[in-house]
Amino acid sequence: MPHLTTSHAFHETGPAQQHLLLFSVTADIPATHALHSACELLSAATHTLDAAATGTLCIDAHQAFLLCHALRAVKATVDALGQDNAL
């Protein structure tokens, strides 16, 4: 039986006391596809951060937010694979 994602919401928004989550990982995506997408996001973030770290690229606050969001999406994907699944 293939490993599948479970629904997993992420990205807080609105007043903190309301615990609103704007985005989610879709349930029932095969793990191989979900991990491939997560790896692509990690690769893009790593290349950008490497360029910033070596001084070949300056990133502004908007780009930093996009990198942070991409990394949160990767974490949510991995978390969605770990929920209710025997890895």
From TrEMBL:
Organism: Pseudomonas weihenstephanensis
Record protein name field: DUF3077 domain-containing protein
Superkingdom assignment: Bacteria
